[in-house]
Amino acid sequence: xxxxxxxxxxxxxIEKVAIELSNGMTTVTGETGSGKSLFISAMKALKGHRIxxxxxxxxxxxxxxxxxxxxxxxxxxxxxxxxxxxxYLEDNSRMVVKRVFGGKTGAYINDSPVSxxxxxxxxxxxxxxxSQFENRELFKKDYRLSVLDTFIKNSDKLKEYxxxxxxxxxxxxxxxxxxxxxxxxxxxYLEYQIDELVKLETWEGxxxxxxxxxxxxxxxxxxxxxxxxxxxxxxxxxxxxxxxADIIDDLAKLSDVKGLDERMKSVAIExxxxxxxxxxxxxxxxxxxxxxxxxxxxxxxSMLMKHSSADITELLxxxxxxxxxxxxxxxxxxxxxxxxxxxxxVQNILDEKAVVLRETxxxxxxxxxxxxxxxLKKFGMEGVDLKVNVEKTDIFGENGVDDVKFSINTTGSxxxxxxxxLSGGELSRFLLSVKLVDREKGRLLxxxxxxxxxxxxxxxxxxxxxxxxxxxxxxxxxxxxxQTAASADExxxxxxxxxxxxxxxxxxxxxxxxxxxxxxxxxxxxxxxRFNDTASEMLxxx
Length: 542
Description:
The chain has helices at residues 38-46, 76-84, 116-123, 141-151, 155-181, 184-200, 206-218, 220-254, 260-277, 290-306, 312-378, 424-437, 456-469, 482-486, 512-523, 529-541, and strands at 2-11, 14-20, 25-30, 62-70, 94-102, 106-109, 112-114, 127-131, 385-397, 400-409, 417-418, 444-448, 474-478, 490-499, 502-509. It has 542 residues and is α/β, with parallel strands linked by helices. Among the domains are: 1-126 and 444-503, Rossmann fold, CATH 3.40.50.300; 184-334, no CATH class; 510-542, no CATH class.
Protein backbone atom coordinates (compact mmCIF):
# COMPACT_ATOMS: atom_id res chain seq x y z
CA UNK A 1 0.00 0.00 0.00
CA UNK A 2 1.19 3.51 -0.85
CA UNK A 3 -0.36 6.82 0.13
CA UNK A 4 0.26 8.75 -3.08
CA UNK A 5 -1.43 12.05 -2.19
CA UNK A 6 -2.70 13.59 1.01
CA UNK A 7 -5.24 16.43 0.91
CA UNK A 8 -6.01 18.64 3.92
CA UNK A 9 -8.73 21.31 3.98
CA UNK A 10 -9.72 23.60 6.85
CA UNK A 11 -7.46 21.57 9.08
CA UNK A 12 -6.41 23.62 12.12
CA UNK A 13 -4.06 26.29 10.67
CA ILE A 14 -4.04 24.85 7.13
CA GLU A 15 -6.68 26.27 4.81
CA LYS A 16 -6.02 23.90 1.93
CA VAL A 17 -3.03 21.87 0.81
CA ALA A 18 -2.31 18.89 -1.44
CA ILE A 19 0.75 16.83 -0.50
CA GLU A 20 2.55 14.23 -2.61
CA LEU A 21 4.46 11.56 -0.70
CA SER A 22 7.42 9.61 -2.01
CA ASN A 23 7.06 5.89 -2.61
CA GLY A 24 10.25 5.52 -0.61
CA MET A 25 11.20 7.85 2.24
CA THR A 26 9.73 11.30 2.83
CA THR A 27 10.94 13.68 5.54
CA VAL A 28 8.92 16.53 7.00
CA THR A 29 10.75 19.42 8.60
CA GLY A 30 10.00 22.93 9.78
CA GLU A 31 10.41 25.31 12.67
CA THR A 32 9.26 24.16 16.10
CA GLY A 33 5.52 24.73 16.37
CA SER A 34 5.06 25.05 12.61
CA GLY A 35 2.46 22.29 12.51
CA LYS A 36 4.41 19.17 11.58
CA SER A 37 2.34 17.14 14.06
CA LEU A 38 -0.64 17.63 11.72
CA PHE A 39 0.75 14.67 9.78
CA ILE A 40 0.21 12.50 12.84
CA SER A 41 -3.41 13.60 13.23
CA ALA A 42 -4.07 13.07 9.51
CA MET A 43 -2.62 9.55 9.48
CA LYS A 44 -4.52 8.62 12.64
CA ALA A 45 -7.71 9.80 10.93
CA LEU A 46 -7.00 7.48 7.98
CA LYS A 47 -6.52 4.62 10.47
CA GLY A 48 -10.02 5.21 11.78
CA HIS A 49 -9.16 7.13 14.95
CA ARG A 50 -11.60 9.63 16.41
CA ILE A 51 -11.25 13.23 15.16
CA UNK A 52 -11.97 16.00 17.66
CA UNK A 53 -13.73 19.22 16.71
CA UNK A 54 -10.76 21.31 17.82
CA UNK A 55 -8.96 20.24 14.61
CA UNK A 56 -11.47 22.21 12.52
CA UNK A 57 -9.93 25.38 11.07
CA UNK A 58 -11.42 28.85 11.06
CA UNK A 59 -12.44 28.98 7.38
CA UNK A 60 -15.77 27.15 7.79
CA UNK A 61 -17.40 24.58 10.06
CA UNK A 62 -16.18 21.48 8.18
CA UNK A 63 -12.71 20.02 7.88
CA UNK A 64 -11.51 17.32 5.50
CA UNK A 65 -8.67 14.81 5.35
CA UNK A 66 -8.42 12.63 2.27
CA UNK A 67 -5.84 10.39 0.67
CA UNK A 68 -5.31 8.73 -2.68
CA UNK A 69 -4.07 5.23 -1.95
CA UNK A 70 -2.46 2.73 -4.30
CA UNK A 71 -2.90 -0.94 -3.45
CA UNK A 72 -0.24 -3.06 -5.09
CA UNK A 73 -1.00 -6.40 -6.72
CA UNK A 74 1.06 -8.33 -4.17
CA UNK A 75 -0.87 -6.86 -1.23
CA UNK A 76 -3.27 -9.80 -1.02
CA UNK A 77 -4.42 -9.03 2.54
CA UNK A 78 -5.63 -5.52 1.69
CA UNK A 79 -7.14 -6.67 -1.59
CA UNK A 80 -9.08 -9.40 0.22
CA UNK A 81 -10.44 -6.83 2.67
CA UNK A 82 -11.50 -4.58 -0.22
CA UNK A 83 -13.30 -7.56 -1.74
CA UNK A 84 -14.89 -8.35 1.63
CA UNK A 85 -16.28 -4.80 1.91
CA UNK A 86 -17.17 -4.54 -1.81
CA UNK A 87 -14.74 -1.65 -2.33
CA TYR A 88 -14.15 -0.88 -6.00
CA LEU A 89 -10.53 -0.15 -6.96
CA GLU A 90 -10.11 2.24 -9.87
CA ASP A 91 -7.69 0.81 -12.43
CA ASN A 92 -7.67 -2.25 -10.13
CA SER A 93 -5.31 -0.44 -7.76
CA ARG A 94 -6.56 2.96 -6.56
CA MET A 95 -9.02 4.18 -3.94
CA VAL A 96 -9.75 7.50 -2.20
CA VAL A 97 -10.30 7.59 1.56
CA LYS A 98 -11.90 10.69 3.08
CA ARG A 99 -12.75 11.86 6.58
CA VAL A 100 -15.08 14.81 7.15
CA PHE A 101 -15.31 16.35 10.62
CA GLY A 102 -16.69 19.37 12.45
CA GLY A 103 -20.32 20.37 11.85
CA LYS A 104 -20.91 16.81 10.69
CA THR A 105 -18.70 13.74 10.68
CA GLY A 106 -18.29 10.94 8.20
CA ALA A 107 -15.91 8.48 6.60
CA TYR A 108 -15.96 7.69 2.89
CA ILE A 109 -14.19 5.39 0.46
CA ASN A 110 -14.59 6.39 -3.19
CA ASP A 111 -17.37 8.78 -2.03
CA SER A 112 -19.39 5.94 -0.50
CA PRO A 113 -20.03 6.25 3.25
CA VAL A 114 -18.34 3.66 5.47
CA SER A 115 -18.10 3.11 9.21
CA UNK A 116 -15.08 4.11 11.28
CA UNK A 117 -14.76 0.47 12.31
CA UNK A 118 -14.49 -0.58 8.65
CA UNK A 119 -11.81 2.04 8.06
CA UNK A 120 -9.88 0.81 11.08
CA UNK A 121 -10.08 -2.80 9.93
CA UNK A 122 -9.06 -1.88 6.39
CA UNK A 123 -6.09 0.42 7.07
CA UNK A 124 -5.32 0.04 10.77
CA UNK A 125 -2.56 -2.53 10.22
CA UNK A 126 -1.20 -0.79 7.12
CA UNK A 127 -0.48 2.58 8.70
CA UNK A 128 1.83 2.47 11.71
CA UNK A 129 2.87 5.43 13.81
CA UNK A 130 5.96 5.55 16.00
CA SER A 131 7.00 8.45 18.18
CA GLN A 132 8.60 9.17 21.51
CA PHE A 133 5.05 9.73 22.76
CA GLU A 134 3.73 6.45 21.31
CA ASN A 135 6.11 4.19 23.26
CA ARG A 136 3.21 2.95 25.37
CA GLU A 137 2.47 0.61 22.46
CA LEU A 138 5.43 -1.46 23.66
CA PHE A 139 3.68 -2.12 26.97
CA LYS A 140 0.61 -3.69 25.36
CA LYS A 141 0.55 -7.48 25.44
CA ASP A 142 -1.16 -7.90 22.07
CA TYR A 143 1.32 -5.57 20.35
CA ARG A 144 4.34 -7.42 21.72
CA LEU A 145 2.85 -10.71 20.58
CA SER A 146 2.15 -9.29 17.13
CA VAL A 147 5.78 -8.14 16.83
CA LEU A 148 7.05 -11.68 17.39
CA ASP A 149 4.33 -13.35 15.30
CA THR A 150 4.90 -11.01 12.37
CA PHE A 151 8.67 -11.47 12.56
CA ILE A 152 8.46 -15.28 12.50
CA LYS A 153 5.65 -15.25 9.87
CA ASN A 154 3.23 -16.92 12.23
CA SER A 155 0.05 -15.60 10.59
CA ASP A 156 -1.20 -18.96 9.24
CA LYS A 157 -0.75 -20.76 12.57
CA LEU A 158 -2.29 -17.84 14.43
CA LYS A 159 -5.25 -17.80 12.06
CA GLU A 160 -5.82 -21.53 12.61
CA TYR A 161 -5.71 -20.99 16.38
CA UNK A 162 -8.08 -18.02 16.22
CA UNK A 163 -10.64 -19.93 14.15
CA UNK A 164 -10.78 -22.62 16.84
CA UNK A 165 -10.72 -19.96 19.59
CA UNK A 166 -13.78 -18.23 18.10
CA UNK A 167 -15.51 -21.60 17.77
CA UNK A 168 -14.80 -22.23 21.46
CA UNK A 169 -16.29 -18.82 22.33
CA UNK A 170 -19.44 -19.66 20.37
CA UNK A 171 -19.86 -22.92 22.29
CA UNK A 172 -19.30 -21.15 25.60
CA UNK A 173 -21.77 -18.46 24.63
CA UNK A 174 -24.40 -21.04 23.64
CA UNK A 175 -23.91 -22.96 26.90
CA UNK A 176 -24.11 -19.75 28.93
CA UNK A 177 -27.31 -18.78 27.13
CA UNK A 178 -28.84 -22.20 27.78
CA UNK A 179 -27.89 -22.04 31.45
CA UNK A 180 -29.57 -18.66 31.71
CA UNK A 181 -32.68 -20.16 30.13
CA UNK A 182 -32.57 -23.22 32.40
CA UNK A 183 -34.93 -21.89 35.10
CA UNK A 184 -36.14 -24.63 37.47
CA UNK A 185 -38.67 -22.24 39.00
CA UNK A 186 -40.13 -21.46 35.61
CA UNK A 187 -40.21 -25.15 34.76
CA UNK A 188 -42.13 -25.95 37.97
CA TYR A 189 -44.56 -23.10 37.34
CA LEU A 190 -45.21 -24.26 33.76
CA GLU A 191 -45.76 -27.82 34.92
CA TYR A 192 -48.28 -26.61 37.49
CA GLN A 193 -50.18 -24.47 34.96
CA ILE A 194 -50.21 -27.21 32.33
CA ASP A 195 -51.37 -29.79 34.86
CA GLU A 196 -54.16 -27.45 35.98
CA LEU A 197 -55.40 -26.90 32.43
CA VAL A 198 -55.10 -30.57 31.46
CA LYS A 199 -57.16 -31.54 34.52
CA LEU A 200 -59.80 -29.00 33.47
CA GLU A 201 -60.53 -31.33 30.52
CA THR A 202 -62.25 -28.62 28.58
CA TRP A 203 -62.95 -28.52 24.87
CA GLU A 204 -63.49 -25.92 22.24
CA GLY A 205 -66.90 -24.22 22.64
CA UNK A 206 -67.61 -25.54 26.15
CA UNK A 207 -67.89 -22.04 27.62
CA UNK A 208 -70.57 -21.04 25.06
CA UNK A 209 -72.50 -24.29 25.52
CA UNK A 210 -72.49 -23.97 29.32
CA UNK A 211 -73.69 -20.39 29.10
CA UNK A 212 -76.58 -21.39 26.86
CA UNK A 213 -77.58 -24.33 29.05
CA UNK A 214 -77.56 -22.27 32.23
CA UNK A 215 -79.56 -19.53 30.57
CA UNK A 216 -82.12 -22.11 29.36
CA UNK A 217 -82.46 -23.74 32.77
CA UNK A 218 -82.94 -20.40 34.50
CA UNK A 219 -85.62 -19.28 31.99
CA UNK A 220 -87.10 -22.63 30.96
CA UNK A 221 -90.71 -21.95 31.95
CA UNK A 222 -90.83 -18.54 30.32
CA UNK A 223 -89.06 -19.83 27.19
CA UNK A 224 -91.57 -22.67 26.77
CA UNK A 225 -94.59 -20.38 27.30
CA UNK A 226 -93.37 -17.75 24.88
CA UNK A 227 -92.31 -20.43 22.44
CA UNK A 228 -95.74 -22.05 22.44
CA UNK A 229 -97.44 -18.70 21.98
CA UNK A 230 -95.13 -17.77 19.13
CA UNK A 231 -95.63 -21.14 17.49
CA UNK A 232 -99.44 -20.67 17.53
CA UNK A 233 -99.18 -17.15 16.12
CA UNK A 234 -96.87 -18.32 13.35
CA UNK A 235 -99.31 -21.11 12.46
CA UNK A 236 -102.20 -18.65 12.17
CA UNK A 237 -100.13 -15.94 10.47
CA UNK A 238 -98.77 -18.38 7.91
CA UNK A 239 -102.23 -19.58 6.97
CA UNK A 240 -103.62 -16.05 6.77
CA UNK A 241 -100.68 -14.78 4.75
CA UNK A 242 -101.15 -17.60 2.27
CA UNK A 243 -104.89 -16.85 2.04
CA UNK A 244 -104.16 -13.15 1.49
CA ALA A 245 -101.76 -14.06 -1.27
CA ASP A 246 -104.40 -16.18 -3.01
CA ILE A 247 -107.00 -13.38 -2.79
CA ILE A 248 -104.64 -10.77 -4.20
CA ASP A 249 -103.72 -13.18 -6.96
CA ASP A 250 -107.40 -13.49 -7.93
CA LEU A 251 -107.86 -9.69 -7.72
CA ALA A 252 -104.91 -9.18 -10.01
CA LYS A 253 -106.80 -11.06 -12.72
CA LEU A 254 -109.69 -8.59 -12.44
CA SER A 255 -108.00 -5.29 -11.56
CA ASP A 256 -104.62 -3.58 -11.27
CA VAL A 257 -103.29 -4.29 -7.76
CA LYS A 258 -100.01 -2.43 -8.47
CA GLY A 259 -97.68 -5.40 -7.79
CA LEU A 260 -99.23 -6.32 -4.46
CA ASP A 261 -99.60 -9.91 -5.66
CA GLU A 262 -95.83 -10.48 -5.85
CA ARG A 263 -95.17 -8.72 -2.55
CA MET A 264 -97.83 -10.78 -0.76
CA LYS A 265 -96.44 -14.00 -2.16
CA SER A 266 -93.05 -13.02 -0.68
CA VAL A 267 -94.64 -12.33 2.70
CA ALA A 268 -96.38 -15.72 2.67
CA ILE A 269 -93.11 -17.48 1.80
CA GLU A 270 -91.25 -15.59 4.56
CA UNK A 271 -93.86 -16.52 7.20
CA UNK A 272 -93.70 -20.15 6.08
CA UNK A 273 -89.85 -20.11 6.32
CA UNK A 274 -89.96 -18.55 9.81
CA UNK A 275 -92.44 -21.24 10.92
CA UNK A 276 -90.12 -24.01 9.67
CA UNK A 277 -87.03 -22.43 11.21
CA UNK A 278 -88.40 -21.72 14.66
CA UNK A 279 -87.99 -24.31 17.39
CA UNK A 280 -87.19 -24.29 21.11
CA UNK A 281 -83.61 -25.61 21.78
CA UNK A 282 -83.81 -29.24 22.74
CA UNK A 283 -81.00 -29.63 25.31
CA UNK A 284 -80.44 -33.19 26.36
CA UNK A 285 -79.36 -32.63 29.94
CA UNK A 286 -82.26 -33.99 31.92
CA UNK A 287 -79.84 -35.76 34.30
CA UNK A 288 -77.52 -32.76 34.75
CA UNK A 289 -77.67 -30.82 37.99
CA UNK A 290 -78.06 -27.06 37.26
CA UNK A 291 -75.83 -26.30 40.24
CA UNK A 292 -73.10 -28.54 38.86
CA UNK A 293 -73.38 -26.73 35.51
CA UNK A 294 -72.96 -23.37 37.27
CA UNK A 295 -69.94 -24.63 39.20
CA UNK A 296 -68.39 -25.93 35.97
CA UNK A 297 -69.07 -22.64 34.21
CA UNK A 298 -67.51 -20.69 37.10
CA UNK A 299 -64.42 -22.90 36.99
CA UNK A 300 -64.01 -22.51 33.23
CA UNK A 301 -64.58 -18.72 33.49
CA SER A 302 -61.99 -18.52 36.27
CA MET A 303 -59.40 -20.24 34.05
CA LEU A 304 -60.21 -17.93 31.15
CA MET A 305 -59.69 -14.91 33.39
CA LYS A 306 -56.51 -16.33 34.98
CA HIS A 307 -54.90 -16.84 31.57
CA SER A 308 -56.35 -13.65 30.05
CA SER A 309 -58.14 -15.67 27.38
CA ALA A 310 -61.26 -14.46 25.54
CA ASP A 311 -62.58 -18.00 24.99
CA ILE A 312 -61.71 -21.69 25.25
CA THR A 313 -60.04 -21.67 21.81
CA GLU A 314 -57.53 -19.06 22.99
CA LEU A 315 -57.05 -20.92 26.29
CA LEU A 316 -56.24 -24.19 24.49
CA UNK A 317 -53.77 -22.32 22.23
CA UNK A 318 -51.97 -21.05 25.32
CA UNK A 319 -51.91 -24.56 26.77
CA UNK A 320 -50.23 -25.83 23.59
CA UNK A 321 -47.64 -23.03 23.71
CA UNK A 322 -46.86 -23.76 27.36
CA UNK A 323 -46.44 -27.45 26.54
CA UNK A 324 -43.94 -26.58 23.76
CA UNK A 325 -42.12 -24.17 26.09
CA UNK A 326 -41.89 -26.83 28.81
CA UNK A 327 -40.66 -29.33 26.26
CA UNK A 328 -37.88 -26.92 25.25
CA UNK A 329 -37.00 -26.30 28.91
CA UNK A 330 -36.84 -30.01 29.61
CA UNK A 331 -34.39 -30.42 26.73
CA UNK A 332 -32.02 -27.74 28.08
CA UNK A 333 -29.97 -29.98 30.42
CA UNK A 334 -29.46 -32.50 27.61
CA UNK A 335 -28.48 -29.73 25.21
CA UNK A 336 -26.00 -28.33 27.76
CA UNK A 337 -24.49 -31.79 28.21
CA UNK A 338 -24.16 -32.27 24.45
CA UNK A 339 -22.60 -28.82 23.91
CA UNK A 340 -20.24 -29.36 26.85
CA UNK A 341 -18.95 -32.53 25.21
CA UNK A 342 -18.45 -30.68 21.92
CA UNK A 343 -16.74 -27.83 23.80
CA UNK A 344 -14.32 -30.28 25.36
CA UNK A 345 -13.33 -31.53 21.89
CA VAL A 346 -12.82 -27.95 20.66
CA GLN A 347 -10.78 -27.09 23.76
CA ASN A 348 -8.51 -30.08 23.12
CA ILE A 349 -7.93 -28.88 19.55
CA LEU A 350 -7.38 -25.34 20.81
CA ASP A 351 -4.82 -26.61 23.29
CA GLU A 352 -2.96 -28.35 20.46
CA LYS A 353 -3.01 -25.17 18.33
CA ALA A 354 -1.77 -23.14 21.31
CA VAL A 355 1.13 -25.56 21.80
CA VAL A 356 2.11 -25.19 18.14
CA LEU A 357 1.96 -21.39 18.46
CA ARG A 358 4.05 -21.47 21.62
CA GLU A 359 6.68 -23.74 20.09
CA THR A 360 7.14 -21.47 17.05
CA UNK A 361 7.33 -18.41 19.32
CA UNK A 362 9.92 -20.02 21.58
CA UNK A 363 11.90 -21.04 18.53
CA UNK A 364 11.71 -17.58 16.93
CA UNK A 365 12.29 -15.44 20.03
CA UNK A 366 16.14 -15.72 19.98
CA UNK A 367 16.26 -14.59 16.34
CA UNK A 368 14.06 -11.58 17.18
CA UNK A 369 16.37 -10.79 20.12
CA UNK A 370 19.34 -10.85 17.78
CA UNK A 371 17.67 -8.67 15.16
CA UNK A 372 16.42 -5.99 17.58
CA UNK A 373 19.78 -6.02 19.40
CA UNK A 374 21.54 -5.43 16.09
CA UNK A 375 19.48 -2.30 15.45
CA LEU A 376 19.96 -1.07 19.03
CA LYS A 377 23.73 -1.35 18.66
CA LYS A 378 23.57 0.54 15.35
CA PHE A 379 21.55 3.19 17.18
CA GLY A 380 24.25 3.76 19.78
CA MET A 381 23.16 1.33 22.51
CA GLU A 382 26.39 -0.67 22.65
CA GLY A 383 26.65 -3.47 25.20
CA VAL A 384 22.90 -3.91 25.30
CA ASP A 385 21.63 -7.36 26.22
CA LEU A 386 18.03 -7.98 25.22
CA LYS A 387 15.82 -10.90 26.16
CA VAL A 388 12.55 -11.75 24.41
CA ASN A 389 10.73 -13.91 26.92
CA VAL A 390 7.75 -16.02 25.88
CA GLU A 391 5.82 -16.67 29.08
CA LYS A 392 2.86 -19.01 29.35
CA THR A 393 -0.34 -17.72 30.93
CA ASP A 394 -3.27 -19.66 32.38
CA ILE A 395 -5.84 -18.07 30.09
CA PHE A 396 -6.67 -18.88 26.47
CA GLY A 397 -6.77 -15.51 24.75
CA GLU A 398 -7.37 -14.24 21.22
CA ASN A 399 -3.69 -14.79 20.40
CA GLY A 400 -2.91 -17.91 22.39
CA VAL A 401 -1.72 -18.57 25.92
CA ASP A 402 1.51 -16.61 25.67
CA ASP A 403 2.72 -13.23 26.81
CA VAL A 404 5.83 -11.81 25.17
CA LYS A 405 7.92 -9.59 27.43
CA PHE A 406 11.00 -7.57 26.59
CA SER A 407 13.68 -7.32 29.30
CA ILE A 408 16.94 -5.51 28.81
CA ASN A 409 20.32 -4.92 30.39
CA THR A 410 22.23 -1.80 29.38
CA THR A 411 24.81 -1.79 32.21
CA GLY A 412 26.74 -5.00 31.56
CA SER A 413 25.48 -6.64 34.75
CA UNK A 414 23.60 -9.92 34.95
CA UNK A 415 20.34 -8.29 35.90
CA UNK A 416 17.68 -7.72 33.24
CA UNK A 417 14.94 -5.15 33.78
CA UNK A 418 11.66 -4.43 32.08
CA UNK A 419 11.95 -1.93 29.21
CA UNK A 420 9.89 0.52 31.28
CA UNK A 421 13.18 1.34 33.04
CA LEU A 422 14.66 2.76 29.80
CA SER A 423 14.99 6.50 29.29
CA GLY A 424 12.82 8.33 26.75
CA GLY A 425 15.59 8.32 24.16
CA GLU A 426 16.33 4.64 24.70
CA LEU A 427 12.65 3.78 24.42
CA SER A 428 12.44 5.73 21.16
CA ARG A 429 15.34 3.76 19.74
CA PHE A 430 13.81 0.53 20.99
CA LEU A 431 10.46 1.30 19.35
CA LEU A 432 12.20 2.27 16.11
CA SER A 433 14.14 -1.01 16.17
CA VAL A 434 10.91 -2.95 16.66
CA LYS A 435 9.21 -1.11 13.78
CA LEU A 436 12.16 -1.71 11.45
CA VAL A 437 12.61 -5.36 12.38
CA ASP A 438 9.04 -6.12 11.33
CA ARG A 439 9.13 -8.23 8.17
CA GLU A 440 5.80 -6.99 6.86
CA LYS A 441 5.82 -5.10 3.56
CA GLY A 442 3.55 -2.59 1.86
CA ARG A 443 2.79 -0.38 4.88
CA LEU A 444 3.18 3.29 5.65
CA LEU A 445 5.44 3.85 8.65
CA UNK A 446 5.25 7.33 10.14
CA UNK A 447 7.99 8.27 12.60
CA UNK A 448 7.31 11.44 14.54
CA UNK A 449 10.55 12.92 15.91
CA UNK A 450 11.52 9.44 17.06
CA UNK A 451 15.14 10.57 16.66
CA UNK A 452 14.71 13.61 18.92
CA UNK A 453 16.60 12.07 21.84
CA UNK A 454 19.37 10.62 19.69
CA UNK A 455 22.79 12.10 19.00
CA UNK A 456 24.01 13.25 15.58
CA UNK A 457 26.02 10.20 14.54
CA UNK A 458 23.31 7.86 15.78
CA UNK A 459 20.72 9.91 13.91
CA UNK A 460 22.69 9.26 10.73
CA UNK A 461 22.67 5.51 11.44
CA UNK A 462 18.95 5.66 12.14
CA UNK A 463 18.27 7.45 8.85
CA UNK A 464 20.30 4.84 6.93
CA UNK A 465 18.22 2.02 8.42
CA UNK A 466 14.95 3.82 7.70
CA UNK A 467 16.10 4.39 4.11
CA UNK A 468 16.81 0.67 3.75
CA UNK A 469 13.34 -0.16 5.05
CA UNK A 470 11.77 2.28 2.57
CA UNK A 471 12.47 -0.29 -0.16
CA UNK A 472 9.70 -2.39 1.38
CA UNK A 473 7.51 0.19 3.11
CA UNK A 474 6.59 3.81 2.59
CA UNK A 475 8.44 5.82 5.25
CA UNK A 476 7.43 9.29 6.45
CA UNK A 477 9.67 10.92 9.06
CA UNK A 478 8.94 14.13 10.96
CA UNK A 479 12.37 15.22 12.13
CA UNK A 480 14.65 18.02 13.38
CA UNK A 481 17.81 16.22 12.31
CA UNK A 482 19.49 17.26 9.04
CA GLN A 483 21.14 13.81 8.86
CA THR A 484 17.69 12.20 8.64
CA ALA A 485 16.28 14.78 6.24
CA ALA A 486 19.25 14.44 3.88
CA SER A 487 18.54 10.72 3.39
CA ALA A 488 15.00 11.22 2.10
CA ASP A 489 13.75 10.73 -1.44
CA GLU A 490 11.35 13.65 -0.92
CA UNK A 491 11.71 16.55 1.49
CA UNK A 492 8.60 18.43 2.65
CA UNK A 493 8.72 21.55 4.76
CA UNK A 494 5.94 23.02 6.88
CA UNK A 495 5.99 26.84 6.74
CA UNK A 496 4.13 28.89 9.31
CA UNK A 497 3.46 32.59 9.04
CA UNK A 498 1.36 35.20 10.82
CA UNK A 499 -0.76 37.58 8.73
CA UNK A 500 -2.95 40.16 10.43
CA UNK A 501 -2.53 38.41 13.74
CA UNK A 502 -3.71 35.09 12.31
CA UNK A 503 -1.53 32.00 11.90
CA UNK A 504 -1.34 30.15 8.59
CA UNK A 505 0.58 26.99 7.69
CA UNK A 506 1.52 25.49 4.34
CA UNK A 507 3.26 22.28 3.25
CA UNK A 508 5.47 22.30 0.16
CA UNK A 509 7.97 20.04 -1.57
CA UNK A 510 11.53 21.33 -1.76
CA UNK A 511 13.76 21.37 -4.82
CA UNK A 512 17.50 20.69 -4.59
CA UNK A 513 18.53 24.25 -3.67
CA UNK A 514 15.70 24.58 -1.18
CA UNK A 515 16.77 21.31 0.44
CA UNK A 516 20.27 22.69 0.96
CA UNK A 517 18.88 25.87 2.54
CA UNK A 518 16.55 23.90 4.82
CA UNK A 519 19.33 21.53 5.93
CA UNK A 520 21.55 24.52 6.67
CA UNK A 521 18.74 26.10 8.69
CA UNK A 522 18.40 22.87 10.67
CA UNK A 523 22.12 23.02 11.41
CA UNK A 524 21.73 26.56 12.75
CA UNK A 525 21.93 29.12 9.94
CA UNK A 526 20.48 28.91 6.43
CA UNK A 527 22.76 31.76 5.30
CA UNK A 528 25.98 30.14 6.50
CA UNK A 529 28.23 29.19 3.60
CA ARG A 530 29.84 26.47 5.67
CA PHE A 531 26.48 24.97 6.62
CA ASN A 532 25.28 25.19 3.01
CA ASP A 533 28.41 23.35 1.81
CA THR A 534 27.92 20.67 4.47
CA ALA A 535 24.26 20.33 3.50
CA SER A 536 25.22 19.91 -0.14
CA GLU A 537 27.68 17.15 0.78
CA MET A 538 25.07 15.41 2.93
CA LEU A 539 22.63 15.34 0.03
CA UNK A 540 25.26 13.88 -2.28
CA UNK A 541 25.95 11.12 0.24
CA UNK A 542 22.18 10.45 0.47
